[in-house]
Amino acid sequence: MTSDDSTVLRVAGRPVGRYVSRPELPRRLSPRPYLHPVTTLAGTAVTELSPADHTHHLGVGVAVPDVEGHNFWGGRTYVRDRGPTELDNHGSQRHTSFQLRDPDGFVEELRWIAAPGELLRERRTVTATELTDTAWALDFTFSLTNATGLPLSIGSPATNGRPGAAYGGFFWRARKEATAPDVFTASTEGEAAAHGRRADWLALAGARWTLVFAGATGPTRRDPWFVRTAEYPGVGSSLAHDERLPIPPGETVVRRVVTVVADGRLGRDDAAALVRKAVSP
Length: 281
Hints:
Helix content is 7%, strand content 47%. The protein has helices at residues 191-194, 218-222, 268-279, and strands spanning 6-11, 14-20, 34-38, 60-67, 70-72, 77-79, 83-85, 92-102, 105-114, 117-132, 135-146, 152-155, 169-173, 182-185, 201-205, 209-215, 225-228, 234-237, 245-247, 252-263. It has an eight-stranded antiparallel sheet with strand order 8-9-10-11-20-16-15-14. Strands 4, 5, 12, 13, 17, 18 and 19 form a seven-stranded antiparallel sheet that branches. It has a three-stranded antiparallel sheet with strand order 1-2-3, with no helix packed on it.
């Protein structure tokens, strides 16, 4: 089922996600398309939209806090030597068209617009695939092309002076529950061990659900993970961790993250097996 502004993703005939392509949001939230709600096959919601703790967190999508000084993340901007600061610098991601739109996925064209005009042009490809009777995979690829004709770079609060805050890129705001979710990789456990580190996959396990995030290309696997569990549950892949990411005029940056969405709490072996199945050629 689709409308002009939303698309429902289905797996084996069951709805598992709603994609809103033209959200009506305040400018301070850096309006952008998002997936919410996303659910397990049993119907458990695993995303949140504009929660009270961070109203600019919008389910699943792409959000970047610094594109040449323009905020495509929402909320305050981290300014070196000043800290988080309210600035009139918010941009928006504007849906242009769907090149393809089916029950199990879509290909979308977007424009990233800020005060100077169009900064980036994006092609976003999203597909939903059944893995087992209790797990499915969301395959999310985005390509960002510098549309300005001038050098452009992507930054983060970390590259602007706030250690440990290298958020920006693919981001999943997960369901907040009474107890913080567990987080683990193939070789580590806990937020402190996983945050800011590279890993082929990373799992977030809640009360009745597990999300397993995997970089599906070499460049994506080289991006460290941004992880929050204690403050709020969220996972992202950091485009600008140690230094700004340059995008020369006309050049394109591509990232692909595949997320396993499973009912129940998976162990390490089951998580790894589902990732192998989800990202296999």
